[in-house]
Amino acid sequence: MTLAKPTVLESPTLAAVKAYIRDQWHELTRSHDHILDAAYDEKIAHEKNGPWLIYVSGQEDAEQIAAHLSQFVTPEEMANIAVKPLPLESDQISGHGLLYLPGEYVVPGGRFNELYGWDSYFIVLGLLHDQEFALAKSLIEQLLYEVKHYGTVLNANRTYYLNRSQPPVLSRMVLEWFDRCHDKDWLTDTLPQLESYYYYWAVPPHLNQATGLSRYYAVADGPAPEVLYSERDEAGRSHFDRVREFYRTNTVTDYDASLYYDREADELTDLFYKGDRAMRESGLDPTNRFGPFSVDVIHYAPVCLNVLLYQMEHDIAHIYDIIEIPELAHQWRDRADRRQCLVDQYLWDEDSGFYLDYNFRSSCHRRYEYATAFYPLWGGLASPEQAQRVVDNLHRFEAPGGLRTSNFVSGNQWDAPFGWAPLQYFAVKGLLRYGYKTEALRLAEKFVAMLVKDFERCGVLLEKYDIEKCTGDVSGAIEFGYSSNEVGFGWTNGVFLELLDILEQG
């Protein structure tokens, strides 16, 4: 059957959106030439007229780095930054700042003026689409540098992000670049960092040994500084103030609220802040997917994370195939096969025909259907029968502008009525992988058409969208976290180009 050509492909606005995206790649690029722009951070308190701090890994010489940076900027600009060696322990950091990276990278946009872990995957896809091969390679190399010098792919390259990562997609970026540029020596050189990053997730505390599956978990304590300072409402209340009010005035049945809120003292507990940081490591911040504010995420094996790790295991196996070390390729495929069995055992729910997150503390699924259930189709874990049953549930998530995050309105930006570019990408690619072309093209057209329509309204692409109303005007519906909708926007740009390609190929 020949499908009708999507009407959005006839839009005269498409050329303007593509031109906007090409311009944005360079607007959003950070380099030593503009180190002061990179150091700027609106998410944290900064002393007026004080220098912006740049921290250098202990494996590097801070004085040499400072001398190197001085070659790229004026003396006046250099006077506005202070290059310091990074303390061995994060609690010894006296003032937060930028973590030094040696090359160019692309930031998402708006208040997110640093290199983000999983945003970068979708940015790389867009850069490769626009044949920005050198910039894409440099971005990937900065993430590899983070693993070597800061211990993991960071949530982003600021000191307050040192103790958490983001969903693991680094191996996908490496192979996406290699598939176009075919540099086998470069590919081989990525393996030590890829394997190191894998073990960040595959050993405790991220590994739950009872299930053999991994979880999100942040090792730092106390409130996240960037949230405490910048995520305030019009009354000046921080996100955490609003959370305390929620606990004061609501009965929580999703989990034992006493773990996270001391009602007598009207205080959030130490475990709350650990759960809050872990929720932010998930990249889906915030949502009620794991109960209010998802602080109970530390007790779950999530669908999304374990699919991404399965993909990473296959990716590393594929790299060993390419460089012709079959015995190591076999070992990594064995890891993937074991994880696939565990995903089937713990995360597949036969009754609902859906993938659900598993609470290993209570030994049960959380029945909070979420769009991450389409990840197993993207990763190829699902059997044909499982894929069919997931697709049978598609109508529960489909909205005029694409795929909803969930069917629950919680006041959080990663729940209904909002839709985000990454979740559209995983769903569309997963549907295509299993032969559901009609459904994939329909979702892709809805999301692309919404972006084009909203671009006509405001002239930019944004971080997130209300996909019920098909608009980027979202702040009125967000009660927790930050309510702004950031301009740029890295992952929206990349996913737009990917989905547009899919529509054009038909």
UniProtKB/TrEMBL annotation:
GO process terms (BP): trehalose catabolic process
Alphabetically ordered keywords of this record: Glycosidase, Hydrolase
Keyword Hydrolase: yes
Keyword ATP-binding: no
SUPFAM superfamilies in UniProt: Six-hairpin glycosidases
Alphabetical list of Pfam families matching this protein: Trehalase
Protein name: Alpha,alpha-trehalase
GO molecular function per UniProt: alpha,alpha-trehalase activity
